[in-house]
């Protein structure tokens, strides 16, 4: 799983005018899923299911 930082750098993601993370392919705002077992949050595109880990 890529990090959101890497996704932004590789143009898989972009930030909209409200500073929200969007999937570049679908132009959908990523959903956030918190896994209590992990130190990072998982951000998922509701359209294509792409997953990114968001490091604190
Ligand atoms: Zn997508």
Query: How far is the N terminus from the C terminus?
Result: 16 Å
In spatial order, strands of the major sheet run 1-7-6-5
The topology string of helices and strands comes to EHEEEEEE
**Radius of gyration using CA atoms only:** 10 Å
Residue-averaged pLDDT, rounded? Answer: 93
How much of the sequence lies in strands comes to 35-45%
Shape designation = globular
What small molecules are bound in this structure? zinc ion
Assembly annotation: single chain
**Secondary structure tally, helices:** 1
Structural class: mainly beta
Portion of residues within helices:
10-25%
* Secondary structure: number of strands: 7
Would you identify the regions where 5 or more consecutive residues have pLDDT less than 50?
none
